[in-house]
Specification:
With 622 residues, the protein is of the alpha+beta class. 20% of the residues lie in helices and 34% in strands. The protein folds into three domains: 27-163, no CATH class; 166-462, Alpha-Beta Barrel (TIM Barrel); 474-588, Sandwich (Immunoglobulin-like). Helix 4 (275-289) packs parallel to helix 5 (316-330). The two termini are 25 Å apart.
Length: 622
């Protein structure tokens, strides 16, 4: 397994066991400013020094018909461009919250050789400065750069001091969770091309096998492992009332109520739904789920995460209407955290995050997060920083995107960048998005490596202690019953057994097992049990094609809550009487024992269209 290896990595992990020093809370000076930039040149750029735009909105005041018009605003510059040699006037107005870095503010104005550029700066109705750059600069006709000292303009400005500390006294670690996997009643959802060695739609192979998200025992196993790894809750992908994910969410909430784990939704907004439907769906969640003990709340207010708020052209005004009406309909004052770094969306939302940070250059991640944290704190918002172990969606998209895990180095770098921003939440992307290979849930390829890493980081970040654990001890027995072989598992240890996989070999072909299973070959099947609790017994019946003498042996592999692996074996000779398999059993699983060519053909015919989600730009889809 490509775990975090080597002496250097060992020292690094020892350091992780120490509490992460909370970043020293900074204080910044901010002031509201209006900038009006006008130009008759074919291009112009205004660069700020000694001041930084933290949040802004931009309106085009004049020149909307200028040919090839384009303009942009960043934290330190304004740029306007249009067709070469065009001298029509373009004017934009920027309303901004600005950080003053001392009193040494200045401007650099660059422009084309034609026309002029003018800038007016206003603070709360009082004009601070007015400058103009006209004509060309001898020797610099390409840029015509002029520098303007603005120290005088800010000499008497009263700035507001803002402390950049996090809002939550106790920060939280949450993971994006996908309750959309189905494997029951003969139907597979989000699992395609399923075989013993590979799953066609999954980058890696889950230790729990191709499971069903509505299986309460599976959910319990997930929750217990997540809690042991230092997670406080799941942010569950949610696709609307009455969907598969909605039914699974009910199960997740029920289990989490018993386990003392927190749950909220990730509202999947990248769908062609009307504003009224968005409002109805979010109100439905608050009305039906937010009163559950496990539903995530801050100071008594339910917390909802919204994915890709700018997708499909939805404006800040769209969401302002949505939030207001949802709270009015549901009668609930809730907190909404938006997937965006665009501060113009801050007004209707209570916090900011990004779903997946692979679109940020790894070397710049820490500084990008610290800057976004500053913006959120200045605006009085919650800040959530996201970590991710890697990304690989090449099995489900073409050509796809790949960001290597590098033996855990990439995951560690995203954690380092996240904790350096002193976030209210760290969001793990993801627990189980198997299509995109962002899972920290245990897999065949990595075992528990990424849960162990998560545990080290989460405990250090929150200053939490490692809880003690008991060791599981599974025993097996095999017996015949009414023409079938009954496999019984009993956990006689002091801890739960997780991701139990029993491989059963025999001298005859098994036809069916009334448990989650996959054929390995004609005489061998693999059975999956998500969880066998301590002092608990579970059994499964295995049906064969004919009566006769059977030689059977089984080997069970399973894990403790911390990822320690165990093995248990059993062998038995039985004289099996004539029996009859149940008339109703999972046909999709029965297909799996057919020859590979027929299996491939039937899977192709039954191929279920995947939900595909993308985000514009270079950000990873989820």
């Amino acid at each position: 397994m490509p775990a975090i290896r080597g002496a250097a990595a060992g020292i690094f992990l020892l350091l992780l066991l120490q509490p992460v020093a909370r970043p020293r809370a900074e204080t910044v000076s901010v002031v509201p400013l209006s900038f009006v930039v006008s130009t008759t040149s074919d291009w112009t750029k205004v660069t700020f020094y000694g001041l930084e735009l933290l949040a802004w909105s931009c309106d085009l005041i004049a020149g909307e018909k200028a040919p090839q018009l384009a303009y942009s605003v960043t934290f330190d510059a304004v740029w306007i461009g249009k067709k070469q040699y065009d001298e029509s006037n373009v004017t934009i107005r920027i309303e901004a919250v600005v950080e003053l870095e001392g009193k040494g503010a200045a401007l650099l104005v660059e422009k084309g050789a034609l026309g002029d550029t003018a800038l007016k700066i206003v603070c709360e109705g009082r004009e601070l400065a007015r400058i103009r750059s006209a004509g060309s600069v001898p020797g610099d006709e390409a840029k015509n750069a002029r520098f303007f000292d603005l120290a005088y303009a800010f000499a008497n400005v009263s700035a507001r001091e803002v402390v950049l500390g996090r809002r939550l006294e106790k920060p939280m670690v949450l993971a994006f969770y996908y309750p959309w996997y189905g494997n029951s009643e003969g139907k597979l959802f989000h699992w395609e091309g399923v075989g013993h060695l590979e799953i066609g739609s999954s980058t890696f192979y889950p230790l729990f096998g191709p499971y069903d998200s509505r299986d309460e025992r599976l959910i319990e196993a997930h929750v217990k492992l997540a809690k042991a790894a230092g997670l406080d809750g799941f942010v569950c992908s949610w696709w609307g009332e009455g969907t598969f994910e909605d039914a699974a969410l009910r199960k997740v909430l029920e289990v989490s109520n018993r386990e003392g784990f927190k749950i909220t939704i990730y509202y999947e907004s990248v769908r062609e739904v009307s504003q009224d439907q968005v409002i109805d769906e979010l109100a439905y969640v608050l009305e039906n789920y937010s009163t559950e003990p496990s539903f995530l709340k801050i100071e008594g207010k339910p917390v909802l995460f919204i994915y890709a708020v700018s997708a499909l052209g939805r404006s800040p005004g769209f969401w302002e209407t949505v939030v207001g009406r949802v709270e009015n309909i549901s009668g609930t004052d809730a907190l909404f955290l938006a997937d965006t770094f665009d501060a113009s969306y801050a007004e209707p939302f209570d916090g900011m995050h990004t779903y997946n940070p692979i679109w940020i250059n790894e070397a710049e991640l820490a500084s990008a997060y610290r800057r976004e944290a500053k913006v959120a704190r200045v605006l009085g918002k919650l800040w959530a920083a996201t970590v991710v172990p890697g990304y690989d969606d090449r099995k489900v998209r073409s050509p796809g995107t790949f960001v290597g895990r590098r033996g855990g180095e990439y995951y560690n770098s995203t954690w380092e960048g996240s904790v350096s921003s002193d976030p209210d939440f760290v969001l793990v992307c993801t627990w189980n998005e198997w299509h995109e290979g962002t899972n920290v849930e245990p897999s065949r390829e990595f075992g528990f490596d990424y849960l162990k890493s998560t545990s080290s980081w989460a405990r250090a970040f929150k200053g939490a202690e490692l809880s003690s654990e008991g060791e599981p001890a599974l025993s097996q027995s095999l017996r015949d019953s009414d023409g079938s072989v009954v496999l019984e598992l009993r956990n006689e240890g002091g801890g739960d057994a997780f991701a139990v996989n029993v491989v059963v070999n025999s001298n005859a072909s098994p036809r069916f097992a009334n448990a989650s299973y996959l054929p390995v070959n004609g005489s061998c099947i693999s059975l999956y049990f998500p969880l066998v609790r301590t002092n608990e017994s579970l059994s499964a019946s295995i049906f064969f094609g004919a009566a006769g003498n059977l030689a059977i042996n089984s080997e069970a592999s399973y894990y403790s809550i911390s990822g320690k692996r165990y093995l248990s074996t059993c062998a038995k000779s039985l004289s099996l009487a004539e029996g009859k398999a149940p008339e109703r059993f999972a046909p999709e699983l029965a297909i799996l024992v057919l020859p590979p060519a027929i299996l491939a053909l039937l899977l192709l015919v039954r191929l279920r269209a995947k939900r595909s989600r993308t985000v514009t730009g270079s950000r990873g889809a989820h």
